[in-house]
Amino acid sequence: MHAQSGHRPTAALKGLLVATAAALGILAATAGTAPAADPPAAGDALMGRARELFKPLPATLPAIRNNAVTREKIELGKMLFFDPRLSASGIFSCNSCHNLGLGGVDGLETSVGHGWQKGPRNAPTVLNAVLNVAQFWDGRAEDLKAQAKGPIQAGVEMNSTPDRVMAVLNSIPTYKAKFADAFPNEKDPVTFDNVAMAIEAFEATLTTPAAPFDQYLEGKADALTDTQKAGLELFIDKGCAGCHNGVNVGGHDYFPFGVVAKPGAEILPPGDKGRFAVTKTADDEYVFRAPTLRNVTLTAPYFHSGKVWDLRQAVAVMGSSQLGATLSDQEIDKITAFLTTLTGQQPRVEYPLLPASTPATPQPVFK
Ligand code: HEC
Ligand code: HEC
């Protein structure tokens, strides 16, 4: 029995489904067939409205563009995700900053990486990241395989190089065998590209289905309390759902932070102009991807600056900055109650056993 990273005992089956879908070239970015939903009960107009704006998170693995997901790739990707030897110091793994026991984040204002350096931005969760339109707060990586190469090389994160990563992996026979299993048709499977492909395949398993809100969208009217429903109604009526919608309740488009009123420099540091750095278009100054709000109660602190620790305050800031609305305490409570319904089943990840280093493995370097 392989240690799988699925949410359920059916992980193997899901893996198979995805492999088949991918082999057929079916792209299910917003993921597959929605489960057969019961029609909303007469009078439950709210459920009908919600279904027009949001989609339940499917229980099947989303297929990935140009990367057929197999069990072998997932298993290798999981090892790489947890292996600190991808960093120059041997200290930081992907899981250091995207801790899968902590909602896929590090819980820090901004991340701390190589040499105790503090990076410029808060770490977004890897949970459900596969469903986002592009990766990073500014969308500068088009998908997870493009994304994964960034942190390994970033000076403030893992501070390694593709050559060093290749030297590490080639020095460990078990890794060479795992790459051969995961990329069976390749003559020289241990490549930096394949590191990224395998990590992407593992990350595709990190979805969190069956949140109370998903159950509601699937027709279970009592999956939300009355207060949570009132919060959902406010979330739609006040306009939050204009930017945070779809299967990921966000993650699919870019907006200025401060559509109506710019938040203070404390929350929106003037030095980080967001998507402007990607597109060099004046319109994109202080534009950021609206993040997914799935599992948001697990992922404090909030915003790309990580300056807000209280979800209620984040909701208030959104009201004033994005909608020009001063939300009352009661409204904030209700919206926050709704946001708690977005916490889904967390992936059950069994910690992988990593193969031992050999005398040929490059030694850690700290500067
Ligand atoms: C030192 C901390 C750190 C490490 C180590 C790290 N990350 Fe990140 N990660 C971040 C930060 C910070 C961001 C946001 C950067 C930005 O938007 O400019 C991020 C962004 C991401 C995103 C984008 C999510 C989204 O919604 O946009 C993914 C996916 C991700 N990292 C995966 C990984 C993987 C895979 C690894 C290992 C190869 C890794 N990270 C290593 C801190 C880290
Ligand atoms: C015009 C688009 C827009 C609207 C409307 C909007 N948001 Fe946002 N939201 C964003 C963007 C963009 C960010 C990221 C800001 C940043 O950190 O740069 C964000 C961030 C957030 C965050 C922080 C999430 C995290 O992981 O850091 C929360 C919570 C949030 N929004 C909730 C709401 C709520 C509740 C409403 C309605 C009161 C709302 N949003 C309205 C675009 C919007």
TrEMBL record:
Cell location: Periplasm
Broad class of where this protein is predominantly found: periplasm
EC number: 1.11.1.5
Modification after translation: Binds 2 heme groups per subunit.
Residue span(s) of domain Cytochrome c: 72-176, 226-343
Pfam families: CCP_MauG (PF03150), Cytochrom_C (PF00034)
Keywords: Electron transport, Heme, Iron, Metal-binding, Oxidoreductase, Periplasm, Peroxidase, Signal, Transport
Binding positions for heme c 2 per the UniProt entry: 240, 243-244, 318
Keyword rRNA-binding part of the UniProt annotation: no
One annotated GO molecular function: metal ion binding
Cellular component, GO annotation: periplasmic space
Signal peptide extent: 1-36
Residues that, per the record, bind heme c 1: 94, 97-98, 114
Spans through the membrane: none
Main EC class the enzyme belongs to: oxidoreductase
Cofactor(s) named in the record: heme
Domain of life (superkingdom): Bacteria
Free-text cofactor note: Binds 2 heme groups.
InterPro entries: Cyt_c-like_dom, Cyt_c-like_dom_sf, Cytochrome_c_Peroxidase/MauG, Di-haem_cyt_c_peroxidsae, MauG/Cytc_peroxidase
PANTHER family (UniProt xref): CYTOCHROME C PEROXIDASE-RELATED
Name of this chain's protein: Cytochrome C peroxidase
Species, as recorded: Azospirillum lipoferum (strain 4B)
Species lineage: Bacteria, Pseudomonadati, Pseudomonadota, Alphaproteobacteria, Rhodospirillales
